[in-house]
Each structure stands twice: as C-alpha cells, then as structure tokens.
Write a sequence for this structure.
C-alpha cells in the first residue's frame, strides 16, 4: 500500500455562504493529492500525456463528515491499496489540523491511449514506479 499526505490551505473563495468549504472543492483536493503523489514518485500527468497516456476520471465518491473552514490547514491523505490494471483506484481521507476526519472519498481513473481514446493497461513504467514506492 502507498500512502502520501498533501497539505492544502483553504482559501476564502473555497467557502460557501455558510462559511463551509463548498463540497465541490473536495474533488479538487483529491486531484491535488493525486498530482502530488505522482510527483513524489518522479511522475506527472504531463509526463504521461507526453507519453501518449491519458487518465480520465471514471468514478468519484465523497462522504462529508464535518465541515472545513476558511484558512484551515487540511491534510489530504491518499491511499493506493492495489496495483492498477486498466483502472486505478485512489482513496482519500481529509483531516483538519486538529486531526479530525472531515471527509473520505474515492476516485477511479482509467488508462486510455491519448490518440485513440481506447482503453489500455497501465504502462509498465508506471507500474514499476508504483512498485518501487510500495517497497
């Protein structure tokens, strides 16, 4: 299993009229955590696209337990429990600075050839980078 923490500061524009972080921002926080995890392994979405692979979102789940507020420092923990095939599944836990669990979520992404948009298995170099990170 791979776990990685990303820190995110809540901006004022992320909040709604009630003063809570708007629910749609958690999906963006998940994306930031995925990008940060990939960069920590020496990969990036830009590199994948240059190599002809795109990774569209296939599924999103998000469970809201407690609100986050303007200027909170959040920790988004991303978990990867299994190696990808033609799909990859990430799980998320979002905590505030007091360690309270605010949100849990999941995203499933597919691997597609950029030119044909046809499904493919995860590239070998991507799987190898994940395997190295799991050690």
């Amino acid at each position: 299993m791979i776990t990685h923490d990303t820190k995110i500061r809540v901006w004022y524009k992320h909040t709604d009229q009630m003063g809570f972080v708007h629910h749609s921002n958690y999906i963006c926080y998940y994306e930031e955590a995925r990008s940060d995890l990939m960069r920590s392994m020496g990969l990036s979405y830009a590199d994948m696209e240059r190599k002809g692979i795109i990774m569209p979102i296939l599924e999103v789940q998000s469970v809201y337990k407690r609100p986050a507020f303007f200027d909170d420092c959040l920790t988004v923990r991303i978990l990867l429990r299994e190696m990808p095939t033609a799909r990859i599944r990430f799980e998320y836990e979002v905590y505030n600075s007091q360690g309270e669990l605010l949100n849990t979520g999941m995203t499933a992404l597919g691997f597609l050839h950029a030119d044909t948009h046809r499904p493919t298995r995860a590239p070998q170099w991507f799987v190898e980078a994940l395997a190295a990170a799991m050690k």
